[in-house]
Specification:
Blueprint: H1 2-8, H2 44-49, E1 54-55, E2 60-61, H3 70-85, E3 93-95, E4 103-105, H4 112-122
Antiparallel strand pairs: 1-2, 3-4
Helix pairs in contact: 3-4
């Protein structure tokens, strides 16, 4: 029974703004998102937008507090590709009550090596926000 439950959490797409309803092949995925081309919850267009500094995906700019170094930005792009494209995030899907998504992911594990590399590549970058998930003032765009 545990294996059935575990397997039912894989190969699904979460209910969020840019996700497909079911995972499937997407041969034209772009850049860092290409890892999911054989079975993706994202479209080719979403994968392109994940790489833009000013993307329509979240109306967010990676350079919101000054230019983010490319070596740092690639970690955030990879994180976006994982979020948008992976069909295997079921164990970490949580309910969300927002106008633009009904589900989100929380507490996804990160390999120690990836965490250390992310820190190494971003330790000299700046952000002007304590928490990127809430409290933004969008009135000026």
């Amino acid at each position: 029974a545990a294996a059935v439950t575990r397997n039912s959490l894989l190969n699904i797409c979460m209910d969020a703004k840019h996700h497909k309803t079911e995972p499937g092949p997407e041969g034209q995925l772009y850049g860092q998102c290409v890892l999911w081309k054989d079975n993706a919850c994202c479209t080719a267009n979403t994968s392109v937008e994940a790489h833009q500094d000013q993307s329509y995906l979240y109306n967010f700019n990676w350079d919101h507090c000054g230019a983010m170094p490319e070596k740092c930005k690639r970690h955030f792009i990879q994180d976006t590709c994982l979020y948008e494209c992976s069909p295997n995030l079921g164990p970490w899907i949580d309910q969300a009550d927002t106008s633009w998504r009904k589900e989100r992911i929380r507490h996804v594990p990160l390999c120690r090596e990836d965490c250390e590399q992310w820190w190494e590549d971003c330790q000299d970058a700046f952000t002007c926000k304590v928490n990127w998930h809430k409290g933004w003032n969008w009135t000026t765009g």
